[in-house]
User: Which sequence fits this backbone?
């Protein structure tokens, strides 16, 4: 049973600096930087099936013995293992809906005695357990819509009495409780889309027979849970989705009032403060799917209009502040922006134009929205997916059409976008990035050895391969006043720019920044050494020193 998606690979970024007196080093290949196989499996799904904290990534796989069970990795072999055999035997517990809340990861899993219930882990087998037996039977409560709200997990669950309603927990039985029975009796309100309006209030969507699917609010208790407004009256379905907090006390979302179709709205959690921001796709037609991300004080989102297709938009929650960012694929065809990831003050994402699906970057302005690099020239595109942040860079998976699915990194420039495994043989497909822990990148993919979890040392992958520089007297002999010393840098990675700075007795010599220098009287009896700095786009700057050479008297 194969669960794979069309793959992609991961990515590169780094520092580049050119200085006066810089020279290009003798070249060597980067060489040998490939992901380490952490563990292989009988079956896996490489798509969106994981959750990551700063310390670890939780995912599910079938090791061929236990069936699909929860596993953990920190990007090392020693830190890759099964968390729990929730359902002993080959059937597996089929865990899913992984959601990180601080240092914990919650998920739903099925055990023989309790059915599908909510579980939590701290990344260790000992710290992996069922949160609570919410529905005490062999069927379970079927927890869904798991959402981090501060240090709480809000979710939907059916306790067998009230139907699927809103619950919350901090990971223990005593902190797990029904927030409110929104739909009376055993009917289900099916809460979804929870988001914090402020430190105390959570907004969510829920269904009742009287109002249909509308926007609700709660402070975490039955008494504080209420309808915000019946936006689409008479049992209509406003169907609020993509709730995104712009700032404390203001959320933008998509709503259908029955007149304008699904469009952009705003709310402060009150009926009076809930209003249409803009009819993005004028008239009854919807503005289509609606992915959102907060960038600074504005929300960037994708919306569909008849004139531009599905493209990138921005809003600050006001009509004047809502506009198309850029028509990436001009006219009615769609740029189809996806895989949003904010890194610093920029949004990295995947989008499509005549060059196919490639990596893009945006600062929220038209001028600042551009393709990062055409990794696979032609109309096919590099099929990038799943973007992660690392040290101010974006890491992703992509296929350049030559090397297959590979990990890449980028600083948002074409020169700073490199394959992390450049110079090394590494075969894979259906490759996705799933977490960064310290210097280790976690990947899931299909290799010639089978399905695998992989770890890549990003520091090593992004560090310039360098040689040990040395000082040599021109023409041979001893270092004496009047003679010349030159730096022999050795073979550095191809394209590296080298800068030289001379030091006498540990102190910088002003203006001495050439590869060759004439020995002067001040050098007599002193030790000379040279600091060699190598810079290359897509890599971390490297500094190497020569062995000091004493000048004779």
Assistant:
């Amino acid at each position: 049973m194969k669960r794979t998606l069309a793959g992609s690979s991961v990515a590169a970024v780094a520092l580049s600096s050119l200085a006066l007196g810089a020279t290009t080093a003798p070249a060597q290949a980067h060489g040998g930087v490939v992901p380490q196989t952490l563990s292989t499996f009988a079956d896996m799904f490489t798509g969106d099936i994981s959750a990551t904290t700063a310390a670890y990534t939780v995912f599910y796989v079938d090791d061929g013995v236990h069936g699909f069970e929860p596993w953990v990795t920190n990007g090392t072999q020693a830190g890759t293992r099964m968390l729990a055999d929730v359902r002993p035997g080959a059937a597996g517990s089929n865990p899913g809906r992984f959601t990180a809340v601080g240092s914990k990861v919650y998920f739903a899993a099925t055990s023989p005695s309790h059915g599908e219930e909510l579980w939590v882990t701290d990344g260790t087998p000992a710290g992996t357990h069922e949160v609570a037996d919410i529905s005490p039977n062999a069927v379970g409560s079927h927890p869904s819509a798991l959402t981090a709200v501060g240090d709480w997990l809000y979710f939907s669950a059916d306790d067998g009495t009230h139907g699927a309603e809103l619950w919350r927990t901090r990971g223990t039985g005593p902190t797990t409780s029904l927030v409110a029975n929104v739909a009376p009796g055993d009917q289900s309100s099916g809460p979804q889309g929870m988001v914090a309006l402020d430190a105390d209030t959570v907004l969510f969507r829920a269904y009742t027979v009287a109002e249909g699917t509308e926007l609700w609010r709660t402070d975490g208790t039955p008494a504080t849970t209420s309808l915000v407004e019946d936006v689409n009256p008479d049992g209509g379905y406003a169907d609020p989705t993509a709730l995104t907090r712009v700032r404390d006390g203001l959320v933008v979302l998509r709503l259908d009032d029955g007149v304008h179709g699904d469009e952009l709205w705003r709310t402060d959690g009150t009926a009076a403060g809930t209003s249409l921001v803009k009819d993005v796709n004028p008239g009854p037609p919807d503005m289509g799917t609606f992915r959102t991300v907060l960038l600074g004080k504005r929300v960037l989102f994708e919306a569909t209009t008849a004139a531009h297709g599905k493209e990138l938009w921005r809003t600050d929650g006001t009509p004047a502040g809502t506009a198309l960012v850029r028509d990436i694929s001009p006219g009615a065809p769609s740029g189809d922006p996806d895989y949003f990831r904010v890194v610093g003050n920029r949004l990295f994402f995947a989008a499509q134009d005549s060059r196919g699906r490639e990596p893009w970057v945006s600062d929220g302005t038209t001028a600042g929205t551009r393709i990062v690099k055409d990794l696979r020239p032609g109309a096919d595109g590099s099929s990038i997916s799943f973007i992660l942040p690392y040290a101010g860079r974006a890491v992703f998976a992509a296929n350049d059409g030559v090397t297959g699915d590979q990990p890449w990194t980028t600083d948002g420039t074409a020169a700073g976008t490199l394959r992390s495994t450049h110079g090394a043989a590494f075969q894979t497909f259906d490759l996705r990035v799933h977490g960064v822990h310290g210097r280790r990148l976690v990947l899931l993919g299909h290799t010639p050895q089978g399905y695998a979890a992989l770890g890549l040392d990003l520091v090593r992958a992004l560090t310039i391969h360098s040689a040990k520089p040395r000082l040599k007297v021109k023409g041979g002999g001893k270092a004496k006043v009047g003679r010349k010393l030159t730096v022999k840098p050795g073979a550095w990675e191809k394209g590296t720019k080298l800068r030289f700075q001379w030091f006498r007795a540990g102190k910088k010599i002003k203006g001495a920044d050439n590869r060759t220098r004439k020995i002067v009287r001040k050098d007599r009896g002193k030790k000379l050494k040279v600091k060699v700095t190598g810079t290359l786009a897509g890599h971390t700057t490297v500094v190497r020193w020569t062995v000091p050479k004493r000048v004779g008297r």
